[in-house]
Write a structure and sequence with these properties.
The complex is a heterodimer of chains A (120) and B (107). With 120 residues, chain A is mainly β. Chain A has strands at 3-7, 11-12, 18-25, 34-41, 48-53, 59-61, 69-74, 79-84, 93-101, 109-110, 114-118. With 107 residues, chain B is mostly beta strands. Chain B has strands at 9-12, 18-23, 33-37, 44-47, 61-66, 69-74, 83-91, 95-98, 102-106. In chain B, strand 7 and strand 8 (95-98) form a beta hairpin. In chain B, 40% of the residues are buried. The chains are: A mainly beta (120), B mainly beta (107).
Chain lengths: 120, 107
């Protein structure tokens, strides 16, 4: 059974750095076909893709947020970590991690999401 | 940026057919995937690779993709189909791209 679960702070202050962890089970991050993305959704707004890490550790980032994002993984812990620097109230959103098999790159499994609020 | 255009809202009478579009120049050359999202829940894949249904998704859900428009079709719409629907493609230069989402209302 494949699951992904996000964890991290529910509240961060402006200018702080957000660190989110995605813990996966039911598949291995070393599986050559599997990658993991981070996606966010501000309240009442559309989904926005943030970053992706491939099985070979290659990374891809949103063009508009590239300078603020870092994605990494620890295969032994089955975890994918996203850091986002210089948080702003507009970054308030539900943050999801999701599994994306290689090939056609659709999301077959999503985490439940974690709401992060940016406020002083 | 590789933007995908969706109508903000679509309404359909109970039991009728709803069509939700996703537009972009030459989208027919890409694989398009569709997600359903109900309030307070994570999205769920309903169509992948233009027209394929994951296991557990009713046959009432179908998809097509040609030219500049991909379409998600929901036949015999039910009250439980009321949700937001979002299209997605993967581009080698921009990775995952989502449409703005369409709110489906079943009347």
């Amino acid at each position: 059974q494949v699951t992904l679960k996000e964890s991290g702070p529910v509240l961060v202050k402006p200018t702080e750095t957000l660190t989110l962890t995605c813990t996966v089970s039911g598949f291995s991050l070393s599986n050559p076909r599997m990658g993991v993305s981070w996606i966010r959704q501000p309240p009442g707004k559309a989904l926005e893709w943030l970053a992706h890490i491939f099985s070979n550790d290659e990374k891809s980032y949103s063009t508009s947020l590239r300078s603020r994002l870092t994605i990494s993984k620890d295969t032994s812990k089955s975890q994918v970590v996203l850091t986002m620097t210089n948080m702003d109230p507009v970054d308030t959103a539900t943050y999801y991690c999701a599994r994306i098999p290689g090939g056609d790159f659709f999301i077959d499994y999503w985490g439940q999401g974690t709401l992060v609020t940016v406020s002083s | 940026s590789y933007e995908l255009t969706q109508p903000l809202s679509v309404s359909v009478a109970l039991g009728q057919t709803a069509r939700i579009t996703c537009g972009r120049n030459n989208i027919g050359s890409k694989s398009v995937h569709w997600y359903q999202q109900k309030p307070g829940q994570a999205p769920v894949l309903v169509i992948y690779r233009d027209s394929n249904r994951p296991s557990g998704i009713p046959e009432r859900f179908s998809g097509s993709n040609s030219g500049n428009t991909a379409t998600l079709t929901i036949s015999r719409a039910q009250a439980g189909d009321e949700a937001d629907y979002c299209c997605q493609v993967w581009d080698s230069s921009t990775a995952a791209v989502f449409g703005g989402g369409t709110k489906l209302t079943v009347l």
